[in-house]
Hints:
This is Bifunctional diguanylate cyclase/phosphodiesterase. By secondary structure, the chain is α/β, with parallel strands linked by helices.
Amino acid sequence: xxxxxxxxxxxxxxxxxxxxxxxxxxxxxxxxxxxxxxxxxxxxxxxxxxxxxxxxxxxxxxxxxxxxxxxxxxxxxxxxxxxxxxxxxxxxxxxxxxxxxxxxxxxxxxxxxxxxxxxxxxxxxxxxxxxxxxxxxxxxxxxxxxxxxxxxxxxxxxxxxxxxxxxxxxxxxxxxxxxxxxxxxxxxxxxxxxxxxxxxxxxxxxxxxxxxxxxxxxxxxxxxxxxxxxxxxxxxxxxxxxxxxxxxxxxx
Length: 252
Ligand code: G
Ligand code: G
Ligand code: MN
Ligand code: NA
């Protein structure tokens, strides 16, 4: 498979980069943090989307080292921004199930925090609902991360293997409402769904973030439902670090 072998050969530091998409406090409009999203530009293949290469990397196991690379870069960049004065920014990093369940994952995270100097409470790991398939293993890892002080979030919430019974037991911090619910909010049924998800989150003392926000109408509804945080093209697409710095400078 071409992608697999090209991925193996890829010089990370020259072909991979990380884009950042801001997370916004809906009430104030302030930037609360950002999500790190990997980008791969191959000299011949051009830009390869993560939706294409991440599943392959998950199958082959390459995700372990790619994921570590992302985590390190994202923590290092955030620590740099903290030193520049933006010291309340939180960084969210996507973690594949395979990576999350790999032995030693918690130590890897601890080492990266030590190496980069980023305090643990400013790191959030985004994992999907499929981690709920192996509750006892998931519980151990989540407890290890919690002990470290790292935050965790359930990404694409509402689209996957989800059990409210399990959700209630997991030591997580945030649920991230999937963008498919947000994009269809002009329909009453979808609005009710969004409202219910937010209420579940609030009742479980979790933070709730809506992703895929593209209009002011959506923001107004989400604020009305007491959703604290949002993310989406209305605010910004995922952008390069230099562009993100401009956004930070302009937002003061
Ligand atoms: O940025 P974009 O919308 O193209 O991302 C597409 C998909 O790739 C999303 O599901 C996103 O979570 C995933 N993705 C992006 N960066 C990473 C990463 O660093 N690690 C993992 N595991 N998934 C990522
Ligand atoms: O699975 P995950 O939530 O990590 O994926 C994030 C993906 O969603 C990224 O590829 C990002 O580019 C995309 N995304 C972010 N905001 C929006 C938005 O407002 N609209 C749409 N359609 N996609 C978005
Ligand atoms: Mn995500
Ligand atoms: Na998502």
